[in-house]
Amino acid sequence: MKYVGRLILGITFLLGMSANAVSAHLEDRAERLASQAEELASKSYSGFNDRDRGNRADVEVLYLTQQFSSGASLFRRMIGDRRPDSELRDAVDILSDLARSSERFAFARHQWDEIQRTLDDIGRELNIGKSRRGDERARWNDDESDSHMNGRMRWRGRVDNEVYVVVQRSNASIRTVAGSPVKNAGANFSSPLPRRAVSVEVKKLKGRGSVEVIQQPSRDNDYTAIIQIKDEKGEAADYEFELSW
Are residues 10 and 95 in the same domain? Predict the structure, then answer.
C-alpha cells in the first residue's frame, strides 16, 4: 500500500510538472505574440502619421493592427489568469481570423507571417490542430490544382509619368519607370494572388492615362503579375484600378 501511495504521489507530481511546463510555454508564446503585435501597431501608426493624407486602406490597416495588438494583450492576460483551455482556443481562433484579414493589405507581410507562426505555436500548445490558414497555404502552393478561385485587388495612388505595379500573393510593390515616385499608394486584396498560373484582368476605375497588364502570372516569373500605368500628360494624377483573377 505504501508503494502504491508513493506511486500515486509521484504521478501526481509529474503531471503537475507537465502542466506547469505547458503553462510556461503558453506564457512565453503569449508574451512573444503581444510584443510582436505591439511593435506592428506602433509601426503602422508611425507610417500613418508620417503621411499628410492617408486613404481608406491606410485607415483600415491602422485599425486592424491596433485591434490585433489589443487582442494579443488580452490573450496574454487570459493566460496569466489561467482561463480554461476552451476560452483560450476561442481567443486564438479570433486572433487568427484577424491575422488572416491582414492578407487584404500589402503591409508588413514579413511581420504578419512571424505573428502567424507564433499563433501556430500557440495552437499546437492548445491542441487546436492544423490551422485553417495552413490548409489555405497548401491549396495556394498546389500549382497543379484545378480548383477555381476568384480574387480581386484594388489599387490606388498618385502617378507621375510611368510606373509598374508588381503583384505577388498579397503584396503590391511599385517600380517607378519614369517621373516622380508614386504618392498615397495603397492596395486592398480580397484574397492573395494564387501561386499557380491564372489569367488576370485589369479595370481602370480612375485616371486619365492607360492601365494595362503587361505580365501574366506563370511558373517562370514566380506567379507575378505586372500592371503598367502610363500617364504622359504632365504632372501627377490620381489613379485607381481593380485587378481580378
Answer: yes
Per the structure, the complete domain to which residue 60 belongs is given by 2-140
pLDDT tens readout for residues 173-216 = 999 999 999 999 999 998 899 988 899 999 999 999 999 999 99
Place of cell 503583384: 167
Locus of grid cell 484574397? 191
Same domain, 99 and 39: yes
> Distance (Å, rounded) from C-alpha 35 to C-alpha 114?
11
Burial track 82-110 (b if 16+ CB lie within 10 A, e otherwise)? eeeeeebbebbeebbebbbebbbbbbbbe
Instruction: Band the pLDDT of 9: cuts 50, 70, 90.
Output: low
**Is residue 105's pLDDT more than 60?**
yes
Count of structural domains, the chain: 2
| Residue 50 within any structural domain of the chain | yes
